[in-house]
Fold each of these.
Amino acid sequence: MSTAATARPQDSGPGFRERVDNLPTAAKILLWALFAVFLFLLPLLNIPFITTEGSDFGGVLFTVATYVLVALGLNIVVGYAGLLDLGYVGFYAIGAYTVGVLSAEHGKLSWVVVVPLAIVAAMISGVILGAPTLRVRGDYLAIVTLGFGEIVRLTLVNLEYLGGAQGISNIPKPPGLELFEVPSIDWSSGAPVVDLDTTSTFLKFGINDFVPYYWLALVVIGLVLLFDILVKDSRVGRAWEATREDEDAAELMGVPTFRFKLLAFALGAAIGGLSGALFATKSGFINPQSFELLLSILFLAAVVVGGAGNRWGVIVGAIVVSYFPERFREFADFRVLVFGLALMLLAIFRPQGLLPPRRTVRAKRADDRQAVLEEGEASV
Amino acid sequence: MQFLIDNFAALTVTGLTLGAIYALVALGYTLVYGVLRLINFAHSEVFMYGTFAALWVVMLLGGRPGAGVGPVVFWVAMMFVAAMAVSGLIAVLLERVAYRPLRKRNAPPLIALISAIGASFVLAEIMGLRSRIVAWVGLEENLRDYVRNSRNNAGMPTIISPQPIFTVGGYNVTNVDIFVIIGAIVLMVVLDQFVKRSRLGRGIRAVAMDPEAAALMGVNRDRVIQVTFLVGGVMAGAAAAFYMLKIGITRYDAGFILGVKAFTAAVLGGIGNLRGALVGGFVLGLAENYGSALVGSQWKDVVAFVLLILILLFRPTGLLGESLGKARA
Amino acid sequence: MLLKVNGLCVNYGRIEAIRDISFTVEEGEIVTLIGANGAGKTTTMKTVSGLRPVRAGTVVFDGQDITHLPSHERPVLGISQSPEGRGCFVGMTVMENLEMGTYARPDRKSKAVKDDLARVFELFPRLKERSNQAAGSMSGGEQQMLAMGRALMAKPKLLLLDEPSMGLAPKLIQQIFDIVTEINSQGTTVLLVEQNAAQALKRSHRAYILETGEIVREGTGKELANDPSVKAAYLGGDV
Amino acid sequence: MRSTLKFAVPLAVAALALGACGTKGGETPAAGGSGGASQAACDQKIGMFGALTGPNANLGIYIQNGVNLALDDYNKKNPNCKVTLENYDSQGDPTQAPALAKKAIDDKKVVGIVGPAFSGESKAADPAFNEAGLVTITPSATNPALADNGWKTFFRALGNDATQGPAAAKYIKDTVKSTKTYVIDDASEYGKGLADIVRKDLGAQVVGNDTIQQKQTDFSASVTKVTSSGADALFFGGYSPEAAPLIKQLRDAGWKGTFVVADGVKDQSFIDNAKDAAEGTIITCPCVPPDVAPDFQAAYKAKYNEDPNTYSGEGYDSATILLDGIAAGKDRENMVDFVKSYDKKGVTKQLKFDPKGESADIKVFAYKVDGGKIVSEGEIK
């Protein structure tokens, strides 16, 4: 990941991605598999320096994973379709509350049923919000979505039916399979030692061990990534790109831009809802406090910091936004200040994001060509 | 409903007072949007610094309730001077640090928003951590009254105690109400005339309409942008002073919600349109009050946002449309 | 020599819009740049007025190197451009637009401005009639006149006219060129970019022909107007 | 201990990935377990769980001050066997709470927790503490429902809202002698819960209700509602950041009734900010006035140069219970029983818990803002 972050796609030399792309397929698969295993074991390895000192690393990793998921979803809206959404937390909340309401507050539906329902509920709310507002111009969309996020939160606070400010407790855990225990690694003596006292039970979704939830989230991220890759490379992805670059031109070429924008909105909302559902599952308790407007802004920051439009970039962005404040808890009161400074510095020195999409470079070139043409056009 | 009818006058006057403050803050969003086409997310912090400037200057001058006309006029005047100066300064600084470097690098507009968000965090946190910062510098003893409980509310002595001036529909309109509403309208008119008639004002309009043609006329875009931030900041500072007269309590995060509301007001009236900001502010202030009366205060913000969505659906460019700049469609 | 452009190269990102262009404009002249769509005429114009950054080469005006001078400082030196297309401030009235023309003049408060306004109204009587109307509500020809009038209000030494005849009715075109000649005869040097080659060559002292970002021919207006290859390429039928 | 030996594929992979690896645990039982031996108890810790930074930090710091004072007392008496404080700064955010709880649970040296300070984070973190058997004594979370979850590790060192609400209602009826009362809450769990109890107890004398939002600053609609209702008293369920501007705007509008609030407003900043408008405000609190325990007050003042603030005393008491447990050689496992059977006089009250973990000795006091100070009006009986 960090190698990728330093690779500059604009340079002509082979970047990280090119080098990976050039490897034989078998090596590629092996590399990916090793990387996946590493990710799965990460919370148990307790690698010094990476592991968060102030808070449980498994819990932090789960939080990071939800951010990654959210960033992937928001990337479809902001990065692919170019729609500025400042109220994404609304969908996240809808996902979480669907789980809470149907499995604890007013129903006893099982987790397996509730999560798909949460996705559907978020998706429907995306369509309901998008259908009337996506015709509004881009900058207005920002404030409309921001308003939507607040409407959702205030509704949660003020409707007794949804638990009000008290929130919803005792949200049931997903069914687990208690297969075997995985030990963790202890570094306190300086060298890695297998610590048989601190273990995680494989797929036991308890309240005291977040590692299985992290594993669950990793699997979900994998699936969403796969989905993301398929959609992006399809006709839909190209339609989004055309819409984002020049909506009028896309419309002229026969792309029903409104429908594609709405689709992006709905898909983004669905992933946001899924992420919220996972969050509710893990914490077992939700209240409106967890869905403040500020979270929307952090989500957006994750996408833009990482590089809107590049799925790997937004993942890096999500990690930056969610991991660093936990890792550097010792900054305590100064965390937000430092985070703000970091955002400003990033914006100034890395305006395309940490990992800009390769498209940006291409689109930029197209823009230049168009600028020349436009000036030429004037002299016809 | 009966309640709304019975207390219509009271709700209207207090709604207009609040709306006036929204409108003044909204001007900053509208002006910057007009010339730069970007949402100055950190404008809320510009307002917040103004509230503290107003508060501190009153504390410094020993403001207290029940003083004579002379001192009160002096305190109020100093409040406005301090708040407008500080807010104007912060706004200009913000432009210098958070926006200009990006403009020089031709960064995409979304990144300007991120920079603004970062700046907003930094500004709010500096205020929220002021006790720690002051302790570092070693001025704890001298500044204790100003930095106490920096994460908490900071209240100002009531220097003008509200006195009923006349009665409308059973509501006693107070001197503060009148001062805020009239004051805000006067400032708006002054600004409107400034933008319309002065050379720099014309420069602002020219840049908003067509930056290239403006440059060909000799308009220095950087300077115009700076003036725009300054003017927006000064207006936010005036809003902050009015706010402190009316509400009297501020906090390091007081800007956020008010900023969101003011931005809503700007969009409601038609962003980029100065008169739109005035109309949007008043409409929003009234709607919030009437809405609170009808469905309960807890739905106040929901009323505001639902109104916004409805208006944008039927009038996609706001109530008065965009006028500061139409050129770049 | 009022304007001397030497070895000018301008890029849009990676694309070269103009390559190694050199030309001069003498005081009192009308000089025209002619070329096809995309040849780089407008880019050249925008570079002279400072709207495009220069990659290589120099621009010298009135003996001063202005290659990297910001665009908004050039009107002060006496360069004023009437931009292509609708460069008027559509939200302002005609009068306000004309006043914008004096934005950079050090003597903008003096009586000289009044005289210039009178002169512009004399050249374009239509503008006087409409002086309180919003520029956006006027016809294309009227806006073109306004843009020229506005540029004249800056009292330029060098007037840059970018496509003054674009999109106008033939009768109006004739009128516009008459006015250009009139302005020139009153002592203002003119650099003209035109697609209406026949009229432009007839009126100008000298002309340059641009093709894909390079100057391929130069000569007096008369020479080029009578040159068979130029005739074939740019003059086509007749005006 | 859960040191079941089940070597599986993942371990093998882990071993591969790390090269040289030893194993730890499995054969040695973790420290403690036997109980009693004072040496084993020497590097023990207690945890402080609550908002220590961020917007809600004030309350957490007041508690932490009390806890630190208790630690000082203990460590002075046991200079060779000091107990340290581990801070779990949740910023009052339920989202951060579970991972912090896990961190505390994994630190085997932590034998008890003072906190969590707020009700929301308690709901998020307490199930984990319960499962791990790590005792928690909250000095400030007053939501009544917390005790109904059957958490065996849950203890509360003060009265909950269900005891404070009726006392507030009683005071409004008997002492304020209000006949027309208006009730406003801030839609928060604490404020709404409390206001609902007051509403129920006051019954027909409630002439109107309204709900505001936290961080709201303009209350013009609520002010109009209160003034036009003709209420002679207003109960506000909420915290001081909203209470200060609310009463200020009410007074500005000429309202003359009695303003009654609860412990969420018992904070000098309320008076600092509302200034003259705060005068005469009645504050109910299940917390004991500082002058009830003059020694504690003096010690606190000596260390922090100010009077004990809201819940400083409760923080001191909660920590003292845990430290007494450590002194008695208790470890994490038998600390729960120790706290359950605890019965001693603390600085705030008799420290004794009922089977649900609620404080058995609950007194609600009334305070009044008088001359810019919060002065005690005595117990509400």
Note: The mean pLDDT of chain A is 83.
Amino acid sequence: MDHPVNQTDIQQAMLDQQKSDQRRKHILNLVLLALLLIAPAVIYPVFLMKILCFALFAVAFNLLLGFTGLLSFGHAAFLATGSYTTGYLLSNYSGLTTEMGIIVGTAAATVLGVLFALVAIRRQGIYFAMITLALAQLVYFMFVQAPFTGGEDGMHGVPRGHLFGFIDLENNLAMYYFVLAVFLGGYLLVQRVVGSPFGQVLKAIKQNEPRAVSLGYNVNQYKVLAFVMSAGLAGLAGSVKTVVFQLASLNDAHWHMSGEVILMTLLGGTGTLLGPVVGATFVVNLEYQLSQGPLGDWVDPILGAIFVLTVIAFRSGIVGEIQKFVRKNMG
Amino acid sequence: DISDDTVKIGYLADMSGTYRDLAGPNGLKALEMAIADFGGKVNGAKIEVVSADDRNNPDSSSSTVRRWLENENVDLVAGMVASSVTIAVTKLLEENDGLGIVSGSAASSITNEHCTPNHIHYVYDTYPLANGTAKAVVQEGGKEWFILTADYAFGHALEGDVTRVVEENGGKVIKTARHPFPTSDFSSYILQAQSSGADVVALANAGSDTTNAITTAGEFGLTQSGQTLAALLLFLTDVHALGVNSAQGIQLTTGWYWNMNEEARKWADRFMDETGVRPTMVHAGIYSSTMQYLNAVKATGSDDTQTVRKQMMDTPINDMFATNGRIREDGRMVHDMYLAEVKTPEESENEWDLYKIVRTIPGDEAYRPLSESKCSLVSKN
Amino acid sequence: MSDQFVLETRGLVKEFKGFVAVDDVNLKVQRGHIHALIGPNGAGKTTVFNLLTKFLPPTRGTILFNGKDITSLKSAAIARRGVVRSFQISAVFPHMTALENIRVALQSFEGNSFQFWKSGHSLNKLNERCMELLDSVGLTEFANTTTVELAYGRKRALELATTLAMEPELLLLDEPTQGMGGEDVERVVELVRKAAEGRTVLMVEHNLGVVSKLCDRITVLAQGSVLTEGEYKEVSEDPRVREVYMGSANTTQEAVE
Amino acid sequence: MSMILGVPVAVLFGQLLLGIINGAFYALLSLGLAVIFGLLKIINFAHGAMYMLGAMVTVIMFDAMGINYWVALVLAPLVVGCFGVLLEYFLLRRIAGQDHIYSLLLTFGVALMIQGILTNIFGVSGLRYSMPEIFQGGFKLDFMFLPYYRAWVIFMALLVCFGTWFMIEKTKLGSYLRAGTEDAQLMQGFGINVPLLISLTYGFGVMIAAFAGVLAAPIYSVTPVMGSNLLIVVFAVVVIGGMGSIAGAIITGLLMGVIEGFTKVFYPEFSSAVIFLVMVVVLLIRPSGLFGKEA
Amino acid sequence: MSQGSDKEYEQLRVSGLHAFYGESHILHGIDMVVHRGELVTLLGRNGAGRSTTLKAIMNMVGRRTGSIMINGNETMTCQPHHIARLGVGYCPEHRGIFSALNVQENLTLPPVVRSGGMSLEEIYSMFPNLYERRFSQGTKLSGGEQQMLAMARILRTGANMLLLDEITEGLAPVIVEKLGEVLVKLKNKGLTIVLVEQNFHFAAPLADRHYVMEHGQIVEEISADELEAKQSVLDSYLGV
Ligand SMILES: Nc1ncnc2c1ncn2[C@@H]1O[C@H](COP(=O)(O)OP(=O)(O)OP(=O)(O)O)[C@@H](O)[C@H]1O
Ligand SMILES: Nc1ncnc2c1ncn2[C@@H]1O[C@H](COP(=O)(O)OP(=O)(O)OP(=O)(O)O)[C@@H](O)[C@H]1O
Ligand SMILES: [Mg+2]
Ligand SMILES: [Mg+2]
């Protein structure tokens, strides 16, 4: 067999491809950033913040589902842990600056993530999903019973406080730009992770685990690290959400929340970076629009129909389908 | 004067979940009936309604209400069912100096430790529920109590209130069992109740938990073996779902019953024409409270929160909903409550002919006295 | 002795619910050899591989690698020590390009695999070596092709290249030429020969032509235990081997050509 | 009377029995789920909705047409089963061979639609369904009063469970089913009408759920949301039993009923979570569930 | 079923067959005819499209155009299970052993489509390994045992046309020899066989005709008696 194409050409082609991908990604990121920066002038900031929090949650989740191939059905536990921890701290220790509350909340979720990971990581596929669900249900039970969460009533009146001790977050705009910064931090981190050498290994594990093992990778360590990162980011989303809304409730810990983040991610497109963001925006917005309008009592059937439609017609999710379309029409 | 020449009312309730039937879309109907009856305008300003499904989720609800208050100049938030939602919303109201009238929630803490100068709790709460039913049952000789409690704030509050009432009246709570919310199979608890030897089995839960428990009690012959079943919170819709066969003889406390007097019946007929069902006490409360609110706006010519609230507190309430009603400084609307008993199949003439009123409990006797209040608005002397 | 033998098993046994798949196997693989493991289907060859790489835990027995007991190590650790296998049923990362497949293997030596903060560009320096490896199995033009789209034979070639990327000290090949046509077989033979320079290979192979050409020493496994061992000539003339494995000499001879 | 941890032994007997009865529901539901997952690799999040439909259809048929319990026992599962077949034919079929998660999303969407629509029509307070005359009353056992109906439930549930197990594990049809899930295309290449087989299997799985729904109609409040909370518990049961193991689902269902029953006595608050604790423990010890085949 | 050596009867006629996997066009107009009782091989390099041809005949590829007549029936619009019912037995490249079934269940799985298949006893005596392991899970067999199982199970169904994809792959030489004997026996029974084979030495003595494929097309047809004359052509195509 002869090789009509030259080796270096192929390498070069690949590098060029990488570069142009990179450039496109940068441009896209900049456009989005610009939009996000001016958004509060047009859209109600608290609503935007809600979207950003859920987007961060979905991005965190997608690090696992989309890039490691692990379906966690217990991510609500991390959201809620971040949320309650931060809520508790900010309500009870008035000396604490907001960012400290958030950091500790995130750390708590991260620690919980380590615990979950150690228990669950050896299980695969649907067993993994189910064991995370089970653990999350136990966490839910704890939150129902623990006195500090306020049980079914929830935890209310959490002060937004001052960022670094001097920026007053009661101001919605200040709060918005802080949330935006946190979101971007999380998003860029995930983007970096996915493209990193570590990300390559995750991808390999996702596609063929035994093969990755035989190449000398201790896959469980990689999965644990990915899981913990994802848990931490989910906790961060929860912490920030609590500060925005000044409340934490059992909804955050309920399995519906774990389900919701799966839906957001799938709707937007798993395995794409922007997908979960778009998915979260879509779902939050849709729920809001529907619950306001004359279709108020038809929210569930309409959401249901959208899920069905997505699975049947746009399986790669909104972003995934767009990517497909672009690829088809540009190459 | 009336801000931007409109009075805007936001109706927030569970439109699609567990609490849908007791308030829900029909509550919105009641609200709209009130506005229509008022003439659609107050002092020349038009009255507008916005509504939202709270999805029993305090996050969503508070972002909705925040937007209503901050961006859409909503003057009154009405409805409100799940206590987590109510507390979140009232906190926001306080922050933004809006006004809220809570009609659906049961928690008495809403005008106790969670009271604010920005809301009114209108229809009922756990305190009179316990007070009315428990007192009556103890006085009829039910001394030893088994309480089956839904394991969440509302259940705990009810359990606490019942225990107090039972003990005050010379009875004794011999056992409580807390079941997770929600539960579908109650046979285990009913068996525990049967073997406890208590005279009375009280249900400190709500909705489908209560109806499931009652059905199971019937199946296991709880009442045949001489025990009394007391349901502390039952809405008309629950009893309707159970049917008189299963529910007959159960005593309950209610803030209103559609067939309790002529005025109520007339309104209920109109409501039925609109919706096809009979109103619950919450539906009636929404109508009544909206009327009171609009009257207060009319009287003061203002939609300023404190002005209107003060006017409402100063005006006694006597209408299709309440007799001897008044709003206290903690925001509690105190009015007469009723001890009712579910009719037997023989007595019941149609599917909605469900209660007979056994006794009227005067408002001051029914509700928590201000002297016991933990509300910061109550002046302690 | 540990100098002479890279790999040694002592009394290796694997039972599956009462069925003994590997029965007291004492295998010694000499450093620098290409050592073949042959035997009828179901003799336990793949199972031996699975035991050596700890994809299955042995029921009994010890495995020595360079004289050290590695019986209790985990799969990944064994691979890192230098014992790397290829699979009988093709194993690739289907949604990566051929080049990326190999790069993942190379990467495991870079020590940067936990570096989640580093940019992916840091991996480009491995591309050169990837292309060399791809070229050696004739896949140059498929470097940027997603692996699912490769025909079966090419997937196997890719897998081999990936395995080689691991620079194993002991290479375990399970039927490397399976599913390949004449020319490809030739190339694999060459490749294995090249790969074997400076390292040891243990392979399972049913193509006796390949075995006879390549292998220094042959162990015949039958029903889980070692039937005989020796050079190709000795072994192929053993009547027991003929009976259980090779059949009439005819086929074999033709295959050898 | 002798006591265990302050509870009379007789009461515990009663609880054991009730636990088994409750477990019979879990067994039926998890059986259907296990059939659908084990054979079709569909994560059927509409299972709770199908259970609910079974009950709702029973009530609606009675209210609208006066169809009695006995007829409903056969007819309602058939109606729901047909619905399942249609669902499979028009929707699930299109995602065959895709990742599990899509089936989860799809069936979840369907469940939301069914529940939402019924909620808008019938409300959430529940519909009335009265116990058939023949079941009024019960056995007076030493330690408890056992309503006839509960005895009937356990009898029917066990019958259906055993029948299903037998059909799948021991008959030719069962082996088609088991094989068809692994490589449907090849099975079809052998001359088996796999698409039909799959539709029927899904239909059968939801039929069992609907059957449980009919059994539930006289004793639980029949509402459009009655199945939604049961769902994840039933999933847990299937996982504890070992996904794909039919016998596992049945036995675990009964077992979990009993464990939950005892929890209701000793630590009632925990009764909704105990199954998940069991699940974590079981999966730590036996990665593929109590009766699952090892991977 | 008209018996034996009705060599004129067209068991299979493929004309202008194109096949696609999603976007990729794999077969570019295949024409071939196989008569009843013939054994025909498809030769070619890796990726030439031989497996795809068999799959296309079974309607197991994404999309196909052209015409495929089996036993005189046009099958372009048939579902795979209808095609099997026409008496086609397909043994796939990757064996397709079912892990949920044990060996015996795997063996008895394909329904009998015609009379005249082998009995279970005959099969077990031909493949004693399978008999020994008949109650173990199908996929726990060794690679070679799985291959035997895959082959054996279509012998039971009585199919009179077999599509065999690389059946000698991974088998010990003794077994390969035995398989050769089996094929001869089957041929003598009048079965039609299309064999995709890498192992030319195995195929050559058995086949009546060879089709050589390259890039999704048939580039050469060689009958058994021309084999020697065309050896060099063949070698150049196969790269031997
Ligand atoms: N996980 C398992 N459980 C039970 N039996 C098994 C398992 N794996 C392999 N076996 C059995 O062990 C025996 C040896 O299998 P192995 O795969 O090692 O054979 P092999 O020598 O590689 O054969 P081949 O050349 O056909 O690949 C076979 O009879 C097989 O059925
Ligand atoms: N599922 C698929 N999707 C896309 N392309 C495929 C698919 N399967 C095979 N191909 C492509 O079709 C072409 C022919 O493949 P086929 O499997 O028919 O080859 P073959 O001649 O049987 O070779 P081999 O010896 O590798 O089995 C190859 O180029 C392959 O890349
Ligand atoms: Mg093998
Ligand atoms: Mg092929």
Note: The interface with chain B takes residues 8, 10-11, 14-15, 18-19, 21-22, 25, 116, 119-120, 123-128, 130-131, 138, 144-145, 147, 149-150, 219-221, 223, 225-226, 229-230, 261, 264-265, 268-273 of chain D (CB under 8 Å).
